[in-house]
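Running this now, will post back.
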Amino acid sequence: MFESLINRLRGKREAPSLPEPDEHLALGALLVRVAKSDNHYDAVEIGEIDRILADSFSLNPIEAAKMRATCEKLEAQAPGTPDFALLIRQTVDYPHRLEMIRALWRVIMADGDHAPEEDETLLEIEKIFGIRPEDRPV
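Update: finished.
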């Protein structure tokens, strides 16, 4: 309590707490994670993530960008990919998980540079999602 008061007096603001991830935020975090898996995260990938979030959840561009920003923070704090992927597997049916895999693939291809690290991350997600090999988009 006192630390919070002292920080406010010094002009330091506490970072707002992040929401508990649901399947929507988990998908966003996985989109960000796949985009960052090759250590290259650029405007093209960010734009594709925003479009996917907007289309998937009926958001306008500003809402999608805000959601992506939240997902970026969640992704940065998350211990590993399996946490988000397992949440999705437990709450989303197979056809929609398959659509999510296709969306993740769109992010990988957005920058025109296909890296092996991206494939590894996507394969890990596919396994946790329970995607059958014959249903893989690639």
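The radius of gyration is 17 Å. More later if anyone needs it.
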